[in-house]
Amino acid sequence: MPISRPLPSTPRRWHTHLLGACSLSALLLTGPSPWGVSTAALLPPSAPSAPQPLGALHEEILRLLDSPDSTPRAADWAPLGPEALTELTGLANNPKAPEPQRTRAVAAMAVVAHPEASQRLQGLLRSPASPDSVRAAATLALSRREGLEVIPLLTPLLSDHSDQVRATAARTLGRLGGPEARRVLEERLPFEEDLAVREAIQQGLSYIEP
Length: 210
Description:
The protein is mainly α. It is built from twelve helices and no strands.
């Protein structure tokens, strides 16, 4: 599906979320797994957990999302089982939920034990109903979950209509590193018109060793 070129400079509402997005980037991009290796592949097998009643599961998920230790950790989410993905997806898609809660739900999808988590994240990323902050969080969560394998998916986001998504994709590609990430960032830089996104591309390039 072709991705539209960025629109001329418009008031950047996403700048109000910049600090939150940077914090989320730091949390997601400093997970326990090395780049280029799927997080799920590194997790030791765990004993199957008994399904929790939906009400109890929902309350436990809200507790984890509100925890002061906001870095999503696989060990915290493993006891909730694969059913947690449905609850997290519902929160991420809920327009009535607070936006910070929605982005934290997306971040948790990076570590939840479910084979369809990456597909759900891609759905959030492509949904026109998802706010820019949720789409940016999905970009980060996908990179944490899939490592270098996600580069082909992130590359088109450098031309996304959202300044916030473009900037997040640029920094994320830089964190992933490698010659392919360097190539796509260098190719995009001359065409990017937004100053903040250009700075994000340059920052992404600075993460990659020559």
